[in-house]
């Protein structure tokens, strides 16, 4: 046994108005109403011209809307983002481990500044590529991210095997 309260829980107020067919609002093409302000006549759109106008508007809307990232592009963006994160960790480990042998050639302030620039470089490159290639094709973004991955390799970490001693 079902009550009306159960049926109300499964519907929204005003659903019936959306399901009802809408009446046609187009006037015949032969009628041209007179504007009140001046003697000029305005034409009333016909269903054929209205359909053509809607199709043209839909085509321009589809061109104006930005396309989302594709699946392959999104996966590549995640992989390259992970590589950049590993590069940041590699620069931290390699730079801190290399600090003691290099301190006799550079003042501590210069070494710390260089270390921070090296640590932040992968994150800054990643963010700069995402911002700079916002309106371009996906392959352009991927090429710039791969170029950054080749340029920003944490050499102190790679050469020393993670110990930081050269």
TrEMBL record:
The keyword Membrane applies. Residues 1-18 have a biased composition (Acidic residues). Keywords: Membrane, Transmembrane, Transmembrane helix. Residues 1-23 are annotated as: Disordered. The chain crosses the membrane at residues 74-93, 113-132, 139-158. This is DNA polymerase III subunit gamma/tau. It comes from Microbacterium suwonense.
């Amino acid at each position: 046994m079902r009550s009306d309260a159960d049926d109300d829980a499964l519907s929204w107020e005003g659903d019936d108005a959306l399901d009802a067919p809408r009446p046609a609002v187009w006037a015949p093409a032969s009628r041209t109403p007179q504007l009140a302000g001046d003697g000029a006549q305005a034409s009333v759109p016909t269903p054929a011209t209205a359909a053509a106008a809607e199709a043209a508007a839909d085509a321009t809307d589809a061109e104006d809307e930005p396309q989302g990232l594709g699946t392959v592009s999104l996966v590549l963006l995640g992989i390259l983002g992970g590589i950049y994160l590993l590069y940041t960790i590699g620069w931290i480990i390699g730079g801190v481990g290399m600090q003691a042998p290099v301190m006799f050639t550079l003042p501590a302030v210069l070494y710390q500044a260089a270390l921070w620039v090296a640590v932040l470089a992968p994150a800054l490159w990643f963010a700069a590529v995402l911002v700079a290639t916002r309106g371009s094709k996906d392959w352009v973004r991927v090429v710039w991210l791969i170029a950054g991955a080749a340029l920003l390799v944490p050499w102190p970490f790679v050469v020393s095997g993670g110990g930081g001693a050269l």
